[in-house]
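User: I'm preparing a small set of examples for a lab meeting where we compare how different chains pack in three dimensions. I only have the primary sequence for this one, and I'd like the structure in token form so I can line it up with the others. Please keep the answer compact; I'll paste it straight into my notes.
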Amino acid sequence: MQLIKFILPFLVWQSSIYSFTLTDIQGRPLPLSQFAGKPLLIVNIATGHPGYAAQLGELRDLQAAYDTNLVVLAFPSNSFGHESRSAADIALFCTSVYATNFRIMEPASVRGAARHPLYSWLAAGTENGRLGVELQDDFQKVFIDRSGQICGVFAGEVSPGDTAIQSLIEQLLIP
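Assistant: Understood. Below is the structure token output for the 175-residue chain.
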């Protein structure tokens, strides 16, 4: 019985996205519990991606259009080889070039054994209770509905301004 009491705490996984506390690019904690009941857009970004970096401006516009009704969370990542900047340089680039207004997390791996725990949760249907989302490219977009469930996944090449994304957001905002 003692062995079970010792092992059980290590077997508990994050059953809800809202149980995660992230760290933003400035090193401050960001508990996702504060966003319970709001749709989330989680996107892995790379400021050096030759074809997709301009999406940072589109994400800014999306956040501005939906203000506090949609939470955009961006994870800088070099998992696909397009992010060579330091955290400080990423923050400077995003604010000075694209005037970003969404939350940017600390740089993290989004694939493989060293992937960020949130991306492990997204990838494991057994943990998130829905489906596994394995990232294939930078700027892949994962939508979370008001109840904390994965409800949409878009490839990196799909622009934040795409009509399919706009339509999904509008559906998510219906009370």
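A couple of notes for your slides: The longest strand covers residues 40-45. The chain has one domain: 15-172.

User: Perfect, thanks.
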